Here is the input.
Amino acid sequence: MIRCLLPGGTKPLTDPELEDLYFPRKTAGPWVSFNFVSSLDGAATVNGRSGGLGSEADRRIMKLLRRAADVILVGAGTVRAEGYSGELIDEADRKWRLDQGLTERPALAIVSGSLDVDPSLPFFTGAMVRPLVITTGLADPGRRDRMQDVADVITCGQAGLDVDFLVRELRERGYPGIHSEGGPHLFGTFQGAGRVDELHLSLSPLLVGGQATRIAAAPAANPTPLGMHLEQVLQAGDMLFLRYRAQQTGAQRGDTPTDSAGIPPSSEEGA
Ligand SMILES: NC(=O)c1ccc[n+]([C@@H]2O[C@H](COP(=O)([O-])OP(=O)(O)OC[C@H]3O[C@@H](n4cnc5c(N)ncnc54)[C@H](OP(=O)(O)O)[C@@H]3O)[C@@H](O)[C@H]2O)c1
Here is the structure.
């Protein structure tokens, strides 16, 4: 059972109430959300994968976030570690998307600077929609050619990843709702560019210790912190599901005004 602690009280949520919280935004403007699971001591992995941190409720929320996305964005490291292949959303969610006027499936995009990604990976061969591969002008031309056989390759930046260009490009291709499932290097890059609008953070009741990575690996040694507002807290058993919105979102940066899924814009947002 999942309870809603904020907003409202502590009453258990019905299925429709939970689904309403993860309804797609009504906007043509870009919106970048990330979803991570972390242990209490900040580990993003157990034995190199995130699966050991999750729970049934975590997977339920991940599924709701996926079904509302225009495009699911992942870094190449996450694809190498976690797999990602075949159907990412089930039949009921595909039908739900069509009923909402969305495409049957969200698009799928992978970010790789090196393009050292095997085109015969199930990520490509088992994909239900032709994937997008996002890279930079530094990528090896031979690898780029091989990648073009299995995906649409988009160059976002010449000397490094240009996150603003990436967000604009995806929006122009019809994917304003960018939902990322990580990983830490991609998240760090988006943070560094100030392009995180929303974070869905699942807190797992575990102390992991060891050398596990955090959810963000910042490319810069001293990045500028981004302020976030707490907008929603759900609880299922010992797990918490925190939803934070950036203090400065796309609308405030001059993008087309947006309205987050199921959550009215905060007063700062409308100011
Ligand atoms: N706890 C969670 O919720 C969660 C979520 C996702 C992943 N993870 C875990 O995180 C680990 C993977 O971490 P990671 O940081 O390597 O994942 P990642 O961010 O998915 O992948 C990093 C790779 O993505 C590409 N990339 C990311 N930012 C880039 C940039 N600015 N410019 C160019 N390329 C860029 C690069 O690919 P190339 O090397 O191909 O150039 C880079 O090596 C795995 O153990 C995974 O299980 C945990």
Observations:
- The two ends are 37 Å apart (CA to CA).
- The chain has one domain: 29-40+50-206+217-270.
